[in-house]
Amino acid sequence: MGRLMIGWLVNAMAIYAAFQMVPGIHAASQGFAALLFVAFVFGLVNALIKPVVKLFTCPFLILTLGLGILIVNAFMFWLAGYAASAFGVGYHVDGFKPAFFGALVVSAVSFVLNLVLGSPEDDDAED
Fold it and tell me: What is the pTM for the complete model shown?
């Protein structure tokens, strides 16, 4: 359960970094609870929808030698914002370019934070 909470907080901090660093990504509400909700929706989108999208875009991903995953990540970032906005809380992405750079920021910040805090996969090896 602790790994899940750490992953959730890492996502929230990474999304907050994207709010601050990327012009064109706007937070609809300023609050820690709203940020946690956006991180929850982002995690759900990545867990439920991303594998299906990757399956259907597999030929494109192979053709682009894996660089097409950047486009898939940008789409997931935009979709998470759209889904969170449907619940009245979330963020707004102005277009593809902010979604692309926002997804890059979220990936980079998550990577660094997981290095510092220890990734959830590391805990599985110790059990």
Answer: 0.84
Q: Rounded distance, CA 86 to CA 49, Å? A: 17
Cβ neighbors of 105 (< 8 A, separation 6 or more) are 14, 17, 18, 21, 22
Question: pLDDT for 77-110, tens place per residue?
Answer: 999 988 888 888 767 888 899 999 999 999 999 9
Answer yes or no: is pLDDT of 51 > 70.
yes
DSSP 26-62: EESS-SHHHHHHHHHHHHHHHHHTHHHHHHHTHHHHH
Q: What is the mean pLDDT of residues 53-60?
A: 94
User: In the block, which residue shows the tokens 């929706």?
Assistant: 41
Q: Which one, of 18, 14, 37, lies nearest residue 101 by Cα?
A: 18
Question: What is d(CA 120, CA 97) in angstroms, rounded to the nearest whole number?
Answer: 30
Q: How far apart are CA 123 and CA 42, in angstroms?
A: 23
Query: Quick check: 61 and 68 in contact, CB under 8 A?
Result: yes
